[in-house]
Design brief:
About 0% of the residues lie in helices and about 60% in strands. With about 290 residues, the chain is mostly beta strands. The protein has one domain: Beta Barrel (Porin), CATH 2.40.160. It has a 17-stranded antiparallel beta sheet that branches. It is globular, with a radius of gyration of 20 Å. It starts with about 25 loop residues before the first strand and ends with a strand.
Length: about 290
């Protein structure tokens, strides 16, 4: 793969990033993130749950051996955890968690076209009463068209048979329209970026955090809503904010951002019970290493 030209797609996965390949036969990615959301008013199912705050953490490591000039494997793992400050006996999970493998490949179809296929088999649940119902394997298929060094188009699909919407398409663009400004409009983190210098970048943007999880067999009964026993919940939250990205070494970047969470939902779609949260501040820090 051509050094300095490769831009590979990872759409709709919590913590995913776009990275540049190099001439090494083996490359590695390490992403660590932590975030906090202040108390947000939460209602649903005819109930006023009250204020719910949140801690989140994400750790992802992938090693990519390059089999030939066009093909890289992707082998690794991801752990992600959402911890919610839920009032006693409220019908919301205190924890939603993912522990999964990362299995896939990146392939250069032609000089201008690249593709990624990645599946993450693992456990996606509240980690209580773990059964085969907690096991899932979301699949992402993406492609990138490299129109030029300053303009790339991205296309993708996320497939998850367990969620309310089994197939989600997405499209995006990365356009460096001046020496210092870049429109990086790609899910799950669309941004408008300003290069202060070669090492420091400022940005305005958004982020979508999402996942599908199973809850325990008696989850609802212990909270006064037996219809939620052994249910599947689609989780979604939206961030709007600003931040900075500092490349402290050629291979390590630190990011910090803060802003506003306008919307969060816990959608138990089979019993048709949805809890929604609104209006809370958030902060997030992250470290990304590519070597």
């Amino acid at each position: 793969m051509k050094p300095g030209l490769i831009a590979l797609l990872a759409l709709l996965l919590p913590g995913a990033t776009i990275w540049a390949a190099n001439s090494m036969s083996i490359s590695q990615e390490l992403d660590v993130e932590y975030g906090y959301i202040g108390g947000a008013g939460t209602r649903g199912g005819g109930l006023n749950v009250g204020s719910v705050d949140e801690h989140s953490a994400d750790l992802k490591y992938v090693i990519s051996p390059q089999l030939n000039k066009d093909l890289l494997l992707r082998i690794g793992f991801e752990w992600q955890r959402f911890t919610f400050g839920v009032p006693d006996h409220a019908p919301l999970p205190g924890v939603l968690q993912q522990a999964s493998l990362v299995l896939g490949f990146d392939y250069q179809i032609a000089d201008e076209w690249l593709m990624r296929v990645e599946v993450q088999p693992g456990i996606y649940s509240d980690f209580r009463d773990i059964t085969w119902r907690d096991v899932d394997a979301p699949l992402v298929v993406g492609a990138a068209y490299l129109a030029s060094a300053d303009l790339q188009w991205f296309f993708g699909l996320r497939v998850d048979a367990r969620t309310q919407y089994p197939v989600l398409p997405a499209a995006g663009v990365r356009w460096k329209f001046s020496d210092v400004w870049t429109l990086n409009f790609m899910l799950p983190k669309p941004r408008l970026e300003y290069d202060v210098n070669e090492r420091l970048k400022l940005y305005l943007g958004a982020e979508i955090q999402a996942g599908t999880f199973a809850v325990g067999q008696d989850f609802g009964s212990t909270r006064g809503l037996p219809r939620l026993d052994n249910a599947i919940v689609d989780y979604l939250e939206l961030h709007l904010g600003s931040g900075c990205s500092w490349k402290i070494t050629p291979t390590v970047t630190i990011e910090a951002e803060a802003g506003f969470m306008p919307y969060r939902s816990f959608d138990f779609f089979d019993p048709n019970i949805v809890f929604r949260s609104h209006d809370a501040p958030y902060g997030q820090i992250a470290c990304h290493a590519r070597f």
